[in-house]
Amino acid sequence: MGLTSTTASPPTLPLKIPLPRTYLRLPELRRTFSPVRCSTAAVSSEFDLKRYWSNLIVEINRSLDEAVPLKYPEKIYEAMRYSVLAKGAKRSPPVMCVASCELFGGNRLAAFPTACALEMVHAASLIHDDLPCMDDAQSRRGQPSNHTVYGVDMAILAGDALFPLGFRHIVNNTPTELVPEERILRVISEIANTVGSKGMAAGQFLDLDGSPNAVEFINVKKFGEMGECSAACGGLLAGASEDEVRRLRRYGRAVGVLYQVVDDILEAKASQSEEDDDKKRRKKRKSYVAMYGVEKAMEVAQELREKANMELDGFEKYGESVLPLYSFVDYAADRGFTVADLS
């Protein structure tokens, strides 16, 4: 497919979800299993995020299974499939990409190759992050981390192979009758920037470097970049305007960091002993919780929630299509269901 470079452009505009300032009280984080409810001045509706997410996960898992087949050299593909098809994966990047594309009337078929590529790239980054020379994590997504099963050498190769496979999947499978080639080029560039030395790699470097004053930068780069990229790619595929893509970037970044901050808060509150807490603090010394404590982290989470919702206020003209994106914010803060409930 001969790709040529240009830029995209199309529509814009506003919507308001009333957000009580006391809404996020993390000590009492609700673990309910009812649908997330969203309402706006323009739209009064009940949106079932759990059902939406579950249906998408079935399609995404099927596509990933086909995209990463078991073939020669089998050992590398086994290691790739082990992480990409992990049952504990939430599939947040691909789901956000699809939802952002559908917001602007984009076809789900147009978004799926990029959505799957985002999951491959995300899995590759996690494989490398877990290595002994990086975060030295023994488990990931409810199962032993890749290097503990296949060895460090094979884990490195699996991650190395998944990055380019994601790009190739976009080029070979995105229907050009639905997505012009210039948009495909922009999506590939977007993902490359996200995982590169100015994106997630920069965050990992500073996390390893030990700079105590870089907490915000590390969290934005390690956790916000993938959310930003996922939302922006969905908009780009659908032909969103430059202003709308900028809004999606800020929204996705806020949601990505919010999810991690809430994760750190929940982990700190679940600590069984001071010794456990000590170990976790050493491991997560670059988190808001480790640096500033739970109370300050809760304030940060509330600000991020408000920021994400504020960015979505610019999409009123799209009506109920924006509800999945609003409910991702609620999910990141409240965790109304678990991954196990999605299968």
Automatic annotation (TrEMBL):
Which keywords accompany this UniProt record? Magnesium, Metal-binding, Transferase
Q: What is the lineage of its organism?
A: Eukaryota, Viridiplantae, Streptophyta, Embryophyta, Tracheophyta
Q: Which domain of life is it from?
A: Eukaryota
Q: Which CDD domains match?
A: Trans_IPPS_HT
Biological process, per Gene Ontology = isoprenoid biosynthetic process
Name of the protein in its database record = Geranylgeranyl pyrophosphate synthase
Gene3D superfamilies assigned: Farnesyl Diphosphate Synthase
Q: Which organism is it from?
A: Hypericum annulatum
Instruction: Identify the Pfam families for this entry.
Output: polyprenyl_synt (PF00348)
Q: Which family does it belong to?
A: Belongs to the FPP/GGPP synthase family.
Gene Ontology cellular component terms for the protein in this record: cytoplasm
In alphabetical order, the GO MF annotations are:
metal ion binding; prenyltransferase activity
Q: Which cofactor does it need?
A: Mg(2+)
Record's InterPro entries?
Isoprenoid_synthase_dom_sf, Polyprenyl_synt, Polyprenyl_synt_CS
